[in-house]
Design brief:
single chain; 328 residues; alpha/beta; Rossmann fold; UDP-galactose 4-epimerase, domain 1; 2 domains; seven-stranded parallel sheet; three-stranded mixed sheet; 10 helices; 39% helix; globular; binds uridine-5'-diphosphate
């Protein structure tokens, strides 16, 4: 398949492009390079462009015989979405609308969409299955939920076939060490803890030590980026097989606390990680853990790298060999 990978120069997009190529598909990356990296595009051509540019989108579909789309391109910082909601609704929601309209114009009818557990808002039960109420508590989650709703109606009315993959916490790096995580600014726990351990970043702040969890710190479901990539390929395959369009959680089903992440990184560092206890970060729920049963049943997906130790090991290998990528 010739697959348009929007955001293919970014973290999860580049790992998916690698896996697509390794599986015999042809990824064509579409990226505005606002957050992506040229070094992360190695497995096919790149088309520079913005989802706000409808002419450019039409042009890309006209020049490549695209069979399907995997759509990663988005802004994904919860805090920023609270201060700049317009950016999130414009880039994430309107941008996706432009993309699926361009698909319609080119008669491309399959899309795998990066959704998020942020569409659930504050969990009323954990683990979270796909039937959990969706009540986002920030514009980021809302911008993605709006897209899920649009996809549903485009399916109903235009025959679009879609899968919305609701990620929990993407983490880790390519086990081969070719690509990895590099955000600027970096806000994610694992790269920040590794940077603190390597001395390339400031001591890590532990956001909240008074949660109602066994060690008082917040619990998240960290899922290996290569397992996420694998789920995207499976979702494409299911759409090809005629499976129903639907939303699917992607998580391991196991949660780890912030302190557990620190302990795991300390193991690889061979010393304690410099850390400061800090107040809770606004909007952080105490625990987010996926019920991955539907991913198993629908996609036949189970994690190849479920262990936090392995996720951290791959991230550690990447960050210790690419210290220049940690400029902030
Ligand atoms: N976290 C932390 N210190 C940091 C960054 C994150 O304690 O410098 C915590 C955060 O409060 C959350 C968990 O680590 O409980 C994962 O945060 P991250 O930003 O990586 O992902 P999120 O869950 O927000 O998508």
């Amino acid at each position: 398949m010739r697959v348009l990978v929007t955001g293919g120069a970014g973290y999860i997009g580049s790992h998916t492009a690698k896996l697509l190529a390794a599986s015999g598909h042809s990824p064509i990356v579409f990226d505005d390079m606002s957050q992506g990296h040229a070094w992360a595009v190695k497995w096919g051509p790149i088309e520079h462009g913005s989802l706000s540019d409808t002419h450019r989108l039409r042009d890309v579909f006209a020049r490549h015989q695209i069979d399907a789309v995997i759509h990663f391109a988005a802004n994904a910082l919860v805090g920023e979405s609270m201060s700049s909601p317009a950016k999130y609704f414009r880039n994430n929601t309107v941008g996706t609308l432009n993309l699926i309209d361009a698909m319609r114009g080119a008669s491309v009818d399959r899309i795998v969409f990066s959704s998020t557990c942020a569409t659930y808002g504050n969990p009323v039960r954990v683990p979270i299955d796909e039937m959990h109420p969706q009540a986002p508590v920030n514009p980021y989650g809302e911008s993605k939920l709006m897209v899920e709703k649009i996809l549903r109606w485009y399916g109903e009315c235009y025959g679009l076939r879609w899968m919305a993959l609701r990620y929990f916490n993407a983490a880790g790096a390519d086990p081969d060490g070719e690509i990895g995580e590099d955000h600027d600014p970096e806000t994610h726990l694992i790269p920040l803890v590794i940077g603190a351990a390597l001395g390339t970043r400031l001591p890590v702040r532990i956001f909240g030590t008074d949660y109602d969890t066994p060690d008082g710190t917040a619990i998240r479901d960290y899922v290996h980026v290569m397992d996420l990539a694998d789920a995207h390929l499976r979702a494409l395959q299911r759409l090809d097989d005629g499976s129903a369009s639907q939303a699917v959680n992607l998580g391991t089903g196991r949660g780890h606390s912030v302190r557990e992440v620190l302990t795991t990184v300390a193991h690889f560092a061979g010393k304690d990680v410099p850390a400061v206890e800090s107040p809770r970060r606004a909007g952080d729920p105490p625990a987010l853990v996926a019920d991955p049963a539907r991913a198993r049943d629908v996609l036949g997906w189970t994690c190849r790298y479920p262990a936090l130790e392995v996720i951290v090991q791959h991230a550690w290998n990447w960050h210790s060999k690419n210290p220049t990528s940690q400029s902030t």
